[in-house]
Structure formats: C-alpha cells, structure tokens
Design brief:
By secondary structure, the protein is α+β, with helices and mostly antiparallel strands. 40% of the residues lie in helices and 24% in strands. A hairpin with a 2-residue loop joins strand 5 (84-93) and strand 6 (96-104). The relative contact order is 0.13.
Length: 195
C-alpha cells in the first residue's frame, strides 16, 4: 500500500522477485517514461495514507530495448498522460528502473511496449540491465525480444527499412567526385554568365 516516489524507495526484494507495479504515465522523455506509482488501495487505509504520501515520479526504462529516436516519438504519440500501465521490475540502475511495460488495449488485451517497439523496428534489442544473464527469466525475455526484432527485420520496418533503388542511386551519384566537380563547374558557369 506504500507509494514509491523514487527508485531507491522500492525494496530490493521487489526487484529480485520481479514484482509488477501499477502506475500512471506523466510523460515520455529521452531518458524513459516518467510514471507515478499507484499503490494498492485499501478503502479506509488509503484515504488516510494519501494525506502523508509524498509526490514524485519514477523513471522507467524499457528493459532490453535500445530506443531509436523514432521509438521515442512513437511512444509520445501512442501513450497519453495519466494513462494507466503496469511495469514489471527487472532491475534498478541508479535512479532508473529497468522494466517490462504493459499497457491495456481494450478490456482483455494488454500490449508489452518492449516487444511492440522492436516489432515495429523502432529500436534494437540490448542487454537487460539488472537481470543476471544466466537466469532463466533473462533468457526467456531476451528470446521474446529477439523474436519481435526479427519480425521487423524480415518486414524491413523502421530502422531496418532499406533505401529504394532510386535513393541508393541518388546517394551514389551525389557522392561521386566527377558529379560534384561537374556541379561546381555548372554553378561557376552560371555565376560567370550572370555578371
């Protein structure tokens, strides 16, 4: 029933047991998601506790995901302030929490943002900080994240999108030394004619 306002407030046992916590999104930043922890409510006790609870937000990072700038933009577009979400603790690094973040989509469906970002090609898989790399959970999650990234790679989505033939040809021509020399000559010739 306690409200956590800092990553250091969360007991080590919670992190070790990978406890799921509920929260409300405040905003999406370059560093991660700023989430207000929403504690379990007990009717009479909660109303008394609210008077003494401190205000603050937790910095939640998507565990196992290295976000591309397009991934941050997508999160800002998809997630709304005050939106409810669940975050499963995977690790704690300084004042940030490495988590699996789940968002409800409809009545019975929830989406793991970590996987969704990778499935759309808006990031790459990374080491899951805080989880011991020999643990069963680490490899289970890492396998799920790699599968999601592979889907984007096969569909050539997001950061895996290949340039079209005309884009590649244009890039090759613009970087060609002869073409650059001809462009410089043409601009010199234009300026000489205008004088």
């Amino acid at each position: 029933t306690a409200k956590f306002t800092s990553a250091l407030d969360i007991p080590v046992e919670f992190v070790k047991k990978n406890v799921k916590l509920r929260g409300k999104l405040h905003q999406v930043t370059e560093k991660g998601l700023e989430v207000e922890h929403v504690p379990i409510s007990v009717p009479f006790v909660t109303s008394i506790q609210r008077k003494w609870q401190a205000q603050g937000v937790l910095l939640v990072r998507l565990g196992g995901v290295e976000l591309a700038p397009s991934g941050t933009a997508w999160l800002r577009q998809e997630l709304k302030p005050k939106q409810a979400l669940w975050f499963q603790l995977l690790g704690r690094e300084d004042l940030a929490l490495e988590c699996l973040v789940l968002v409800n989509k409809g009545r019975f469906l929830s989406v793991c943002l970590n996987e969704e970002i990778l499935r759309r090609g808006l990031g790459r898989t990374a080491r899951i900080e805080g989880l011991h790399h020999e643990s069963r959970l680490y490899w289970k999650l890492h396998k799920r994240l790699l599968r999601a990234e592979l889907k984007a790679l096969r569909k050539r989505q997001g950061i895996w999108k290949e340039e079209s033939y005309s884009e590649r040809t244009g890039d090759l021509l613009s970087s060609n030394k002869l073409v650059r020399t001809l462009k410089q000559f043409a601009s010199w010739l234009r300026s000489a004619v205008q004088r």
